[in-house]
Write a structure and sequence with these properties.
By secondary structure, the protein is α/β, with parallel strands linked by helices. The protein is built from 24 helices and ten strands.
Length: 517
Amino acid sequence: MLAGVVALWFSYGRDGAPYITNDGYQYLDAASNLAAGKCLCTRVALFDEQIAFGHFPVPFTHFAPGYSLLISGLSLTSLKPEIAGYLISAAGFLVAIWLMQDVAVTLGASACVAAAFSLILITHATAVLYGSAVETESLFTAVLLALVALVLRDIRSQGANRLLPIGIGVVAGLSYWIRYPGLFLLGGAGLYLITTAWRVPRERRVAIVGLLTAVLLAAAVQIRNAVYMGSWRGGFKSGSGETLREVATGTVRAFAHLVTGDRVPVRFGVGLAFLLLCAALALFFGVQTWRQRDSARLGLEGLGWASFGWALFIGIAYVGGVMVAALTTIAADLPRYYFPAYPLFLACAAAFCSSFAKGKKSIVVALLVFSVVAVEARNLFVPPPVPDWIVTKAILAEEVQPGVSLTEWLRQRLGPDGTMAAVEGQAVHYILRSPVVAVIPAAATSRRGDGPAFQSLMRQFRAQYLLVFPGLDPDRIPEQSSYEFVRQLASGDAPTWLEPAVRTRDAVVYKCVGCGT
């Protein structure tokens, strides 16, 4: 735990915590609106279902509401929303460290091996960044591990603790409030509770209560989504066009990146070869030991294979659910979605390796952990990308005339409620605090992206201005480079319904004729 605190301190100073980007802008906006006594809503429209709502404010349904609710609650103590979001993520990171060790030891890992495998998480650049970011990954990881910890305790108690099945249902249901992929945890936990009700008569009633609790908690969010957006998924249904082969290949790559990191290019060399050799030896010794089917030697006294099987099943069911989501929605960042299951698999690996970690074979486990840490920890020395809002803020600080920045120019014309459209729209909204229709990359939408479609969109939301960034690298802003119409605007070629309003070195603002009325 102390090592985790040190890791967060390192990230806080180096990465500029709270690290805010992407979804964090909308989480903070929804939390701020709620803390101000308004609706659970957002004033930035990016995704198809948010655009389809047609006006501001947009109900906060594209993301699960739990994280914003927590931020809003902490904001009532006079904490800034950004700090509240950071504290929740940091706490999630530290709790995940504790729960990972708890799960590993409960599965039969020795304390030393569990601690060693925990170092893989503590030195993981992505895990540390999530612990410093205004995102839900750390919190959701802790919830996933808490669910598994409760399941293992219920198996060990053999019905003696009647509250555990209810606790399993509560945690499974709340996971859906934190992230929609919690639905896949709900499926794994639900199957466990159904199996328990069938096999353990004295737990039947409490298992049914736990199952109903989980279903009702998830249903509350789904009913709200259906009321506002006409879909229990909150409208999150735009397809990605990914094939099964692409998703399967992406899954393999995602887990490879989780092990080796994704900031430093991985090349086959001595370090990676040594890691693979240690992993092969650990697998060989582990399988050799497990074939003896001696629970005492496996360190699984009193638990048998059921605990290990259920722990793995919950993790695998979650991964399978994410794969289905990647096939049917715009969810494409597989390393990010798989990350919450990674500490669970590390805990299972710790229990597996503890089965043979005796005498000289312990050296294999030590070298395995060392090799993984050595390969992945290189990523700690590469800072993460500069958050979008910092780059955008610097561009908006450019002067349109002596003493007047582009930020001031836009605020003077928009006021508190004036609407605009923008590339990097979520970051622009975070800076200006005005309603913004954000341009989404073409690969993440089913909407048209030509001139008439943009004109219709701006008129629908009464967006007076359109902001583009010709000075930015196209690779950094795919939402600008993926549309021919927006690329033409960035180059200065605009239709008659867009009048050039102001230009700086890296930004151009167009005024939409007749859109603000």
